[in-house]
Description:
Blueprint: E1 2-4, E2 7-10, E3 18-20, E4 27-30, E5 46-48, E6 53-61, E7 65-73, E8 79-86, E9 96-97, E10 101-106, E11 109-110, H1 113-118, E12 128-129, E13 135-141, E14 149-153, E15 157-167, E16 170-178, H2 182-191, E17 203-210, E18 215-222, E19 226-230, E20 242-247, E21 258-263, E22 269-272, E23 278-280, E24 284-287, E25 297-305, E26 310-317, E27 325-330
Antiparallel strand pairs: 1-2, 2-3, 3-4, 5-6, 6-7, 7-8, 9-10, 10-13, 11-12, 13-14, 15-16, 16-17, 17-18, 19-20, 20-21, 21-22, 23-25, 24-25, 25-26, 26-27
Amino acid sequence: MLLWQGRLFATCEADKPYEIARGDLSTLGESDLGGALAGPFSAHPHRVPSRRTTYNFGLGHGRTTRVDVYALPDEGRGRRIASFVLDGIRLNHDFAVTQNHLVFAFAPHYMSLVNAVVLRRPPVASAKWRAARGTEIVVIPIDDPTTVRRFRVDAFLLEHVVNAFEEDGRLVVDYTHYAHADGLERFVGGLTRGRVDAPLESQIRRMRTDVAHERVDGETILARAVELPRVSPRVECRRHRHAYMGGFRSAADGAFGVLLKLDVETGRVDTYDPGARAYLGEGVFVPRPGATAEDDGWLLTMVYDANVDGSRLEILDARALAEGPIASCAFDQAIPFGFHGMFDGTAD
């Protein structure tokens, strides 16, 4: 979801966003954001609060892949600020934004036209992992977006960004890491057919990028299968201490059974479990008005309870996850699992 200049959009990286009426959530139609978009628009826009601007990208596919990068200011017209080309037909889901830079990590995942068009396999399932080509790091300075720095490192897949910031001259990105695309795709591919073919093989890693020397190093900060990470919007693009994400009760689960809070400084993990045969989605952090502490606020998560075949919205105190919800809103039907959500604090 994207909330921009008082308008709400649903995003899907395969095409342009769709505008949704904020009053009743009816679909208003496809949008090019006032003429800013040259093609598709990614599902993961990121806002830099200090610049009062949201950044995003889109992929255009042909014999090669064109990457268009956009800036959407809180006021004024959106615009394309950079474009560059990748070899082959490529996929990319998320990217990182610091106060002054945009950071991409393009994994060596190449789509096959034969598999996709002739054999009619889904785009991701048709892709081939070519580890020898490595992952390409692309860094764009926001103040000089025509100066694009590019270099390759050992192959890995970045699926979702936790947060990113700048420290000691390096660009620091926390993200969900996969050593190989199969670590994600074997899990997701099974779910589309109603089964768990393989457990998720992710972990949370911290990547430090030294652009001047074209070098990357990193470390694992949570060696556990998790996904859909979030931080408080008040620390986006700045150094953070707490991150929130979905995890599993066991490797056989196909849906998140627990919500986790990770202290990246101490390694402590706090857990909320909604109970047997209950599963939850992403935790959306809502800061408490007037709060000064980073984790002073609430986590909103949708829970599906298979015991009653129903769904509910639960509100958790981010400082006391294990104590369970402080409020719950039950719906009169089951609601399908989603991936991402947002809290519209400006709604009437």
